[in-house]
Design goal:
By secondary structure, the chain is an alpha/beta fold. 18% of the residues lie in helices and 31% in strands. The longest helix is centred in the N-terminal third of the chain and has 23 residues. The termini are far apart.
Length: 268
Amino acid sequence: MNAFRLTASLLTFLLAPLAAAWAQTERPSTCLAMAQTLPDVIYASLAIPAAAGAEAVDITYAGHSTYIIETPAGVTIATDFSGAYGASPLPRVVTMNKAHGTHFTHNPDPAIEHVLPGWNPDGGPARHSLLVEDVYIRNVTTDIHRYGTMEPDANSIFIFEVAGLCIGHLGHLHHRLDDSHYAAIGRLDVLMVPVDGGLTLSLDGMSEIARRLSSSVILPMHRHSTPLSAFTSRMGGGFELDFREGRTITVALDNLPRRPTIVILDGV
Protein backbone atom coordinates (compact mmCIF):
# COMPACT_ATOMS: atom_id res chain seq x y z
CA MET A 1 0.00 0.00 0.00
CA ASN A 2 1.48 3.37 -0.99
CA ALA A 3 1.59 6.38 1.31
CA PHE A 4 -1.45 8.02 -0.31
CA ARG A 5 -3.65 4.95 0.13
CA LEU A 6 -2.43 4.50 3.69
CA THR A 7 -3.32 8.11 4.52
CA ALA A 8 -6.76 7.80 2.89
CA SER A 9 -7.49 4.58 4.78
CA LEU A 10 -6.43 6.15 8.06
CA LEU A 11 -8.65 9.19 7.48
CA THR A 12 -11.61 6.97 6.63
CA PHE A 13 -11.06 4.99 9.83
CA LEU A 14 -10.83 8.13 11.96
CA LEU A 15 -13.75 10.01 10.35
CA ALA A 16 -16.24 7.15 10.13
CA PRO A 17 -17.49 7.54 13.74
CA LEU A 18 -17.87 11.29 13.24
CA ALA A 19 -19.85 10.76 10.05
CA ALA A 20 -22.17 8.32 11.83
CA ALA A 21 -22.78 10.77 14.67
CA TRP A 22 -23.44 13.58 12.17
CA ALA A 23 -26.01 11.46 10.35
CA GLN A 24 -27.98 11.00 13.57
CA THR A 25 -28.53 14.73 14.04
CA GLU A 26 -28.25 16.26 10.57
CA ARG A 27 -30.00 15.75 7.28
CA PRO A 28 -30.36 17.86 4.14
CA SER A 29 -33.34 20.18 4.33
CA THR A 30 -36.25 19.10 2.16
CA CYS A 31 -37.77 22.59 2.44
CA LEU A 32 -34.99 24.37 0.58
CA ALA A 33 -36.66 23.57 -2.71
CA MET A 34 -34.91 26.39 -4.56
CA ALA A 35 -31.18 27.04 -4.70
CA GLN A 36 -30.05 29.61 -2.18
CA THR A 37 -28.31 31.40 -5.03
CA LEU A 38 -31.74 32.46 -6.33
CA PRO A 39 -32.73 35.00 -3.65
CA ASP A 40 -35.49 36.70 -5.66
CA VAL A 41 -37.65 33.60 -5.94
CA ILE A 42 -40.97 33.56 -4.08
CA TYR A 43 -41.22 30.35 -2.08
CA ALA A 44 -44.62 28.75 -2.45
CA SER A 45 -46.20 25.83 -0.67
CA LEU A 46 -45.85 22.39 -2.24
CA ALA A 47 -47.87 22.21 -5.43
CA ILE A 48 -47.39 18.59 -6.54
CA PRO A 49 -50.18 16.10 -5.78
CA ALA A 50 -49.67 14.15 -2.57
CA ALA A 51 -50.51 10.49 -2.09
CA ALA A 52 -53.79 9.79 -0.34
CA GLY A 53 -53.42 9.00 3.33
CA ALA A 54 -50.35 11.17 3.87
CA GLU A 55 -49.16 11.32 7.47
CA ALA A 56 -50.70 14.14 9.47
CA VAL A 57 -49.33 16.64 11.98
CA ASP A 58 -51.49 18.14 14.75
CA ILE A 59 -50.86 21.80 15.62
CA THR A 60 -52.55 23.16 18.74
CA TYR A 61 -52.67 26.76 19.90
CA ALA A 62 -51.62 26.76 23.56
CA GLY A 63 -51.41 30.53 24.12
CA HIS A 64 -49.43 33.69 23.32
CA SER A 65 -46.74 32.47 20.86
CA THR A 66 -46.80 28.83 21.91
CA TYR A 67 -48.08 26.24 19.50
CA ILE A 68 -47.80 22.53 20.22
CA ILE A 69 -46.72 20.47 17.23
CA GLU A 70 -47.34 16.71 17.44
CA THR A 71 -45.68 14.60 14.76
CA PRO A 72 -46.89 11.25 13.40
CA ALA A 73 -44.24 9.52 15.55
CA GLY A 74 -45.60 11.26 18.65
CA VAL A 75 -42.85 13.85 19.11
CA THR A 76 -44.29 16.95 20.80
CA ILE A 77 -42.75 20.40 20.33
CA ALA A 78 -43.68 23.64 22.11
CA THR A 79 -42.69 26.88 20.39
CA ASP A 80 -41.50 30.04 22.19
CA PHE A 81 -41.86 28.10 25.43
CA SER A 82 -41.94 29.96 28.75
CA GLY A 83 -43.67 27.29 30.81
CA ALA A 84 -46.91 29.28 30.99
CA TYR A 85 -48.44 27.41 28.05
CA GLY A 86 -47.96 23.92 26.70
CA ALA A 87 -46.20 22.50 29.76
CA SER A 88 -48.72 19.73 30.48
CA PRO A 89 -48.16 17.16 29.20
CA LEU A 90 -44.49 17.99 29.03
CA PRO A 91 -43.20 18.38 25.46
CA ARG A 92 -40.12 16.50 24.29
CA VAL A 93 -38.73 19.56 22.49
CA VAL A 94 -39.06 23.26 23.24
CA THR A 95 -37.86 26.27 21.29
CA MET A 96 -37.38 29.65 22.94
CA ASN A 97 -36.69 33.28 22.08
CA LYS A 98 -35.54 35.95 24.51
CA ALA A 99 -37.05 39.25 23.40
CA HIS A 100 -39.38 39.04 26.40
CA GLY A 101 -39.74 36.73 29.37
CA THR A 102 -43.02 35.41 27.96
CA HIS A 103 -41.08 33.58 25.24
CA PHE A 104 -38.47 31.67 27.25
CA THR A 105 -37.61 30.33 30.68
CA HIS A 106 -34.32 30.21 32.53
CA ASN A 107 -35.47 27.05 34.30
CA PRO A 108 -36.99 24.57 31.87
CA ASP A 109 -38.06 21.27 33.36
CA PRO A 110 -35.01 18.96 33.23
CA ALA A 111 -37.26 16.22 31.89
CA ILE A 112 -37.57 18.12 28.58
CA GLU A 113 -35.25 16.21 26.25
CA HIS A 114 -34.27 19.05 23.91
CA VAL A 115 -34.22 22.74 24.84
CA LEU A 116 -33.39 24.93 21.84
CA PRO A 117 -32.76 28.63 22.58
CA GLY A 118 -33.06 30.95 19.62
CA TRP A 119 -29.94 32.81 20.70
CA ASN A 120 -26.39 31.77 21.49
CA PRO A 121 -25.47 32.49 25.14
CA ASP A 122 -21.81 32.53 24.10
CA GLY A 123 -22.39 35.14 21.38
CA GLY A 124 -22.83 34.86 17.65
CA PRO A 125 -25.73 33.13 15.93
CA ALA A 126 -27.42 30.06 17.36
CA ARG A 127 -27.12 27.04 15.09
CA HIS A 128 -29.66 24.24 15.48
CA SER A 129 -29.84 21.21 13.23
CA LEU A 130 -31.53 18.41 15.10
CA LEU A 131 -33.29 15.21 14.07
CA VAL A 132 -35.73 13.82 16.65
CA GLU A 133 -37.37 10.66 15.32
CA ASP A 134 -39.46 11.89 12.38
CA VAL A 135 -38.92 15.66 12.67
CA TYR A 136 -35.91 17.69 11.56
CA ILE A 137 -35.53 21.05 13.33
CA ARG A 138 -33.38 23.95 12.15
CA ASN A 139 -33.30 27.70 12.64
CA VAL A 140 -32.64 30.97 10.84
CA THR A 141 -31.49 33.83 13.06
CA THR A 142 -32.76 37.41 13.00
CA ASP A 143 -31.92 40.48 15.08
CA ILE A 144 -33.60 41.97 18.14
CA HIS A 145 -34.29 45.72 18.08
CA ARG A 146 -35.32 47.27 21.39
CA TYR A 147 -34.73 50.36 23.48
CA GLY A 148 -32.82 51.94 20.62
CA THR A 149 -30.27 49.16 20.36
CA MET A 150 -29.80 46.21 18.05
CA GLU A 151 -28.69 42.75 19.16
CA PRO A 152 -27.67 40.70 16.13
CA ASP A 153 -28.79 37.08 15.74
CA ALA A 154 -30.70 37.12 19.05
CA ASN A 155 -34.00 35.74 17.71
CA SER A 156 -34.64 32.61 15.69
CA ILE A 157 -37.17 31.56 13.12
CA PHE A 158 -37.55 27.83 13.78
CA ILE A 159 -38.41 25.45 10.95
CA PHE A 160 -39.83 21.97 11.52
CA GLU A 161 -39.67 19.47 8.67
CA VAL A 162 -41.97 16.51 9.20
CA ALA A 163 -44.29 14.28 7.15
CA GLY A 164 -43.17 16.09 4.00
CA LEU A 165 -44.37 19.40 5.45
CA CYS A 166 -42.34 22.54 6.16
CA ILE A 167 -43.64 24.35 9.24
CA GLY A 168 -42.19 27.70 10.31
CA HIS A 169 -42.51 29.83 13.46
CA LEU A 170 -41.32 33.45 13.12
CA GLY A 171 -40.65 33.85 16.85
CA HIS A 172 -40.50 37.43 18.17
CA LEU A 173 -39.55 38.92 14.81
CA HIS A 174 -38.53 42.60 14.88
CA HIS A 175 -37.52 43.45 11.32
CA ARG A 176 -38.24 42.75 7.69
CA LEU A 177 -36.46 39.81 6.10
CA ASP A 178 -33.94 40.20 3.33
CA ASP A 179 -33.27 37.84 0.44
CA SER A 180 -30.73 35.84 2.41
CA HIS A 181 -33.36 35.10 5.08
CA TYR A 182 -35.89 33.91 2.51
CA ALA A 183 -33.26 31.72 0.86
CA ALA A 184 -32.33 30.16 4.22
CA ILE A 185 -35.97 29.59 5.17
CA GLY A 186 -37.07 28.00 1.89
CA ARG A 187 -40.61 26.73 1.39
CA LEU A 188 -43.07 26.91 4.27
CA ASP A 189 -46.39 25.09 4.03
CA VAL A 190 -47.48 26.31 7.47
CA LEU A 191 -46.47 29.71 8.89
CA MET A 192 -46.95 30.91 12.48
CA VAL A 193 -46.85 34.71 12.48
CA PRO A 194 -47.05 37.30 15.31
CA VAL A 195 -49.74 39.90 14.60
CA ASP A 196 -49.58 42.35 17.53
CA GLY A 197 -48.13 45.03 15.25
CA GLY A 198 -46.20 46.77 18.02
CA LEU A 199 -43.83 44.72 20.15
CA THR A 200 -42.92 42.72 17.05
CA LEU A 201 -42.65 43.95 13.46
CA SER A 202 -45.37 46.22 12.13
CA LEU A 203 -48.44 44.65 10.56
CA ASP A 204 -47.38 46.02 7.18
CA GLY A 205 -44.05 44.22 7.57
CA MET A 206 -45.59 40.98 8.82
CA SER A 207 -48.16 40.85 6.04
CA GLU A 208 -45.41 41.50 3.49
CA ILE A 209 -43.47 38.50 4.81
CA ALA A 210 -46.57 36.28 4.91
CA ARG A 211 -47.52 37.22 1.36
CA ARG A 212 -44.03 36.52 0.03
CA LEU A 213 -43.80 33.14 1.76
CA SER A 214 -47.30 32.34 0.44
CA SER A 215 -47.78 29.44 2.84
CA SER A 216 -50.82 27.21 2.43
CA VAL A 217 -51.78 27.69 6.09
CA ILE A 218 -51.07 30.88 8.06
CA LEU A 219 -51.57 30.70 11.83
CA PRO A 220 -51.63 34.08 13.63
CA MET A 221 -50.31 34.34 17.20
CA HIS A 222 -49.03 36.95 19.68
CA ARG A 223 -52.09 39.09 19.02
CA HIS A 224 -52.71 40.87 22.33
CA SER A 225 -55.56 43.35 21.69
CA THR A 226 -54.88 43.97 18.02
CA PRO A 227 -58.00 43.30 15.91
CA LEU A 228 -57.47 40.29 13.66
CA SER A 229 -58.85 42.34 10.78
CA ALA A 230 -55.86 44.69 11.07
CA PHE A 231 -53.70 41.80 9.86
CA THR A 232 -56.10 39.94 7.58
CA SER A 233 -57.13 43.08 5.68
CA ARG A 234 -53.50 43.66 4.74
CA MET A 235 -53.12 40.19 3.24
CA GLY A 236 -55.30 40.94 0.21
CA GLY A 237 -57.85 38.91 -1.71
CA GLY A 238 -55.52 36.04 -2.50
CA PHE A 239 -55.89 34.60 1.00
CA GLU A 240 -58.92 32.81 2.41
CA LEU A 241 -60.02 33.30 6.02
CA ASP A 242 -61.05 30.28 8.12
CA PHE A 243 -62.24 30.65 11.72
CA ARG A 244 -62.12 27.39 13.73
CA GLU A 245 -64.01 26.52 16.90
CA GLY A 246 -61.26 24.29 18.28
CA ARG A 247 -57.63 24.92 19.15
CA THR A 248 -56.16 22.19 16.93
CA ILE A 249 -55.62 21.93 13.20
CA THR A 250 -54.52 18.70 11.52
CA VAL A 251 -52.37 19.22 8.44
CA ALA A 252 -51.00 16.79 5.87
CA LEU A 253 -49.73 17.04 2.33
CA ASP A 254 -53.05 15.75 1.03
CA ASN A 255 -55.28 18.18 2.92
CA LEU A 256 -53.52 21.52 2.44
CA PRO A 257 -55.98 24.14 1.17
CA ARG A 258 -55.90 24.92 -2.53
CA ARG A 259 -55.66 28.63 -1.82
CA PRO A 260 -53.45 30.14 0.91
CA THR A 261 -55.63 30.30 4.03
CA ILE A 262 -55.36 32.24 7.27
CA VAL A 263 -56.64 29.87 9.94
CA ILE A 264 -57.80 31.44 13.23
CA LEU A 265 -57.83 28.83 15.98
CA ASP A 266 -59.85 29.24 19.16
CA GLY A 267 -58.03 31.41 21.71
CA VAL A 268 -56.01 33.43 19.24
